[in-house]
Amino acid sequence: MDVLELYRRTGALLEGHFLLRSGLHSPIFLQSAALLQHPLYAEAVGEALGKLFEDEKVDFVIGPALGGVILSFVVARALGARALFAEKDGQGGMTLRRGLTVNPGDRFLAVEDVVTTGESVRKAIRAAEARGGVLV
Predict the structure, then answer these.
(1) Cβ-contact 128, 58 below 8 angstroms
(2) Which domain holds residue 120?
(3) How far apart are CA 111 and CA 37, in angstroms?
(4) Which residues form the Phosphoribosyltransferase domain (predicted)?
């Protein structure tokens, strides 16, 4: 299933003028939560993204909370990998909590529902790398 068509079908592809939290401007905004609330569509997105990395031997997929949680799960499911999420650590970074673990040398993929500057997903990547994960 075409991912862009799913965004359109669910009303998650918005067009106009948007001032993003980063301060950047965009003529298009993907309201991914509007799409990801539909489990079958979320699964289709996960499968489409997973297919891009099926030869990478991914051990886990990580995303920043809150937006990357569902996406990390559906991509991990498609890859047969674990799904992790990073949370704010209260000091400007992100960390893993709730029993989520990384084994040294684990290969991982990082995902996010909406990326403008990439700062949140970079923090999630750093949290995984700090525990020995290797970004694919």
Answers:
(1) no
(2) 3-135
(3) 17
(4) 33-132
